[in-house]
Amino acid sequence: MTNEQTTEPTPRARWPFHAIRAIDYTVIFVRDMAAMRRFYEDVLALSLLRELSPNWIEYGIGPNTLALARPSRTAADAPMPAGSASLQLAFKVSAAQVDQCADELVRQGVALLSPPTNQSFGHRTLFFRDPDGNLLEVYAEI
User: Fold this and answer.
1) How confident is the model at residue 68 (pLDDT cuts 50, 70, 90)?
2) 132 with 36: CB under 8 angstroms?
3) pLDDT in tens, 16-51
4) Buried (b) or exposed (e) across 93-106, using 16+ Cβ within 10 A?
5) What residues contact residue 121 under an 8 Å CB cut-off, 6+ apart?
6) Quick check: 3 pLDDT over 70?
7) Which of 31, 107, 116, 127 is the most exposed place for a label (fewest CB within 10 A)?
8) Which pLDDT score, from 0 to 100, does residue 125 have?
């Protein structure tokens, strides 16, 4: 046998990352913890799971956890520059709730980037930003 025949790559079926079946935590590294906390608790009304410290706050969204954190021990990165989104989150609701969410965001003083819109790919979408500038979407399949 040649060396080429004996050093085959690991078959994908045994790839260790195949064990990943869900996203358990989504962590948003924040610039302004107080503003982000107010937004996610008061505007989006997410359920507080726990506050591990003033630098780490967790919210429950279905079976998943959304955490707000200041970059620290594992990621001491500099915050994203203002005006730069570092992520987009999409929250799925019913079609009628897309419009209700838009109305509530406007009532709370949140600027809409795109009002409720029926998209050609079969979604009704609404886009806005959180206080750190991250892009948020509320959508429904239509």
Assistant:
1) very high
2) yes
3) 777 778 788 999 988 899 999 999 999 999 999 999
4) eeeebbbebbeebe
5) none
6) no
7) 107
8) 97
Using an 8 Å Cβ cutoff, are 88 and 134 in contact?
yes
Question: Nearest 5°: phi and psi at 38?
Answer: -60, -45
What tokens were used for 64?
């998943």
Which domains, ranges and CATH numbers included, belong to the chain? 23-72 (3.10.180.10), 85-142 (3.10.180.10)
More confident residue, 4 or 67: 67
| Token output for 20 | 């990943």
Enter the tokens of residue 108.
Answer: 């709370």
By DSSP bridging, strand 56-61 and strand 64-69 are antiparallel
Of residues 7 and 96, more confidence is placed in: 96
| Phi, psi dihedral angles at 132 (to 5 degrees) | -90, 0
Q: What is the mean pLDDT of the chain?
A: 87
